[in-house]
Amino acid sequence: MKKITPYLLLLFLLLAGNVMAQRPNQNIDPEKLQAARIAFITSRIDLKPEQAERFWPIFNKYTEQREASMKSISQLNRGGEAITEEEAKIRIQKRLQLQQKLIDEEKAFVAEVSKVITSKQVLMLHDIARDFNRYIYQRQRGQGN
């Protein structure tokens, strides 16, 4: 089960990134979105002030790295219909390297953030981040407040 957990977290993060990437800027204030995300996650995993002070820089750094890798993966997937078989093989290898990089970064994140929050809180991040993305999606569609 311990081996499966990081992969499930990675899968979620990949899916969450895709959901947010599919919704182009629709008058969302990035600062308000960030503040809402901080409040949502902080309350859901019950971060204490001393934990939050150390947690958020680690989490934000990891999130930036993950988003950059996801963007690179997305770019590799574009225009696949108009490339040669050899180029497709090269892109597949690059994508696999980037996916391995995502896993390595997640392992490093979990190791570092586990010094600040409990393993239970780390595990809860998966569902909480998904819940936040769902909440934002529903708000944009006018289905929730």
Automatic annotation (TrEMBL):
Residues 1-21 form the signal peptide. It comes from the Bacteria. Keywords: Signal. The keyword Signal applies. This is LTXXQ motif family protein. It comes from Algoriphagus aquatilis.
